[in-house]
Amino acid sequence: MSKFWSPFVKNLVPYVPGEQPKLTKLVKLNTNENPYGPSPKALAAMQTELNDNLRLYPDPNSDVLKQAVAKYYGVQGNQVFLGNGSDEVLAHIFHGLLQHDKPLLFPDISYSFYPVYCGLYGISFDAVPLDEQFQINPADYAKPNGGIIFPNPNAPTGCLLALDAVEQILKASPESVVVVDEAYIDFGGETAIALVDRYPNLLVTQTLSKSRSLAGLRVGLAVGHPDLIEALERIKNSFNSYPIDRLANVGAAAAFEDREYFEKTCRLVIEHREWVVAQLKAKGFEVLPSAANFIFARHPQHDAAGLAAKLREQGVIVRHFKQERIAQFLRISIGTPEQNQALINGLGQM
Ligand SMILES: *Cc1c(COP(=O)(O)O)cnc(C)c1O
Question: 92, 93, 207: which to mutate for ligand 1, most atoms within 8 A of CB?
Fold first, then answer.
């Protein structure tokens, strides 16, 4: 705190990202990064781009990447918005499309960045409780609102909402923008992008950070009706005209074009997730059904904070949220088979 801070800054409550430890020996299962590297074709494309052209600004519209994304999802270029990670895309969405008199709705247990954006942009919100099984109940969202946002699969629970339930939410609030944050959709869900042509109030966000192993590159996107995309372009061009740098433009485009590598690595993560779930259940854990690259689990006889501390001593980091309702859960990212084995070994006899 300093006398130079504005009252606005004094009152901000920022997001706290998962730890990025400097020690490389640690088995890092705390921030849902992909255990496999990016597509070799994406790396090669970026290496080629690493040249004297870096003195020039990138294409402000990222046309090449936009076309690659549009082609992949079978939509038009003007239905695609790109940003510096989907966190930035979400920030522009909150700023430009979710700031209304009525409260924004999102699940009480959800991505903890949502209330932070509400604080940043002065948006009132109403946290809608997940049901007893930690599931989203679409009927709970059929009430007056200034917008709706939820991750699908949800984070940190990993639970998937079926596409017809997503549609039920869209139908009940035709006058509001409904944002489906699909950061983890490629690990077992079906994207709602197929619905954008039928629902002009639907906006779907995705990221290259999880299923495409490019968290370090910072590229995220939104797909929706051109009118929604235009609002986001207006915000972007009033904030930073060049959010996607030259390396990110070519690397992300190549990652979308390399379907084979993408599908193979997603399959491996799903396969190893099922192994981790079985091992944890054998130790007495209760594991929520996951369609993501992480699982959310609790043990009836062991305190979650204690387990996280014990794992850390064994060199394995997982995420624990000191939050009501989920204080006894651990969120554990799926790693390589070796990392997953280190997790199971670290838990020891229970
Ligand atoms: C990881 C994550 C994001 C942000 O991803 P970036 O593209 O890396 O900014 C957004 N939403 C949810 C639910 C996430 O878990």
Answer: 207
